Write the structure tokens for this entry.
Amino acid sequence: MISIIGIGSAASKIAEKFNTTKNYNVYLMNDGVERRSKYRFKLKSFPSPEQYEENIPKLDKFFANIDERVQVFVVGSSYSSNYTLGILQQIRDKKIDVFYVQPDAELMTGVPKLLDKAIFSILQEYARSGLLASFTPLSNVMIEKTIGDIPIKTYYDKINESIFSTVHYINYFNHAEPEIGMVSKPLDINRIRTYGLLNIKNLEEKWLYQLDMSRDVCYYLCINRDKLEQEGGLHKKIVDMLKGKPRNAFRRISYAIYETELQDFGLCVAHTNAIQNYS
């Protein structure tokens, strides 16, 4: 099991998506919680960021049964993101992956922009120092580009569904046996990463964040069973395309192919040890 934590209202809406499938325990933490329960915790709201940091709740009982692996979702510009560091300190003995969702930074001003920049930088340092297993920035702007035109009424729901689907399938692939190939484990120092969608036909990546200086790039290809059984030369075709990807002594490429009853689809993950500039 993996514990999912959504810190703040926006992040909780992403986390709620994980309730649609098994293997997750979903913890929602936001100021909209009316009554505290096993998986819901009401966070107080304050007029200034400093007051959040001064009022970190004690969560030992709330997280008493949290799993060894934890995936935390944070939306950087939200005031509730000020709780993040205090919450992470209370589960620091777990394996923690932080997914950081960044709104359109160009349109942010004032306190939200300052919060976004500060939390974005601090969490990367947490990852580099080993306090986090990984830090994964995701950009709403780049996610929107992968989806295409989205109606305003369903904008955030479509974005959230895309985030959930991508994270969930990567979790699945990391625990499933591929038909062929093997995704290499990234070097321990490469704790900063991002995800992307993959065009199966040409292996073109559509990244959900523009990561600088990628070191380990992993390709997950999910191909329909009939094609795996009947299409000769498919493996060579895929390997030849992968060999055309940029790689050197500092940039490694690996892949794995999985079977699906659905239409073909692919995902990719890029890892680095380089601190990402705020933009």
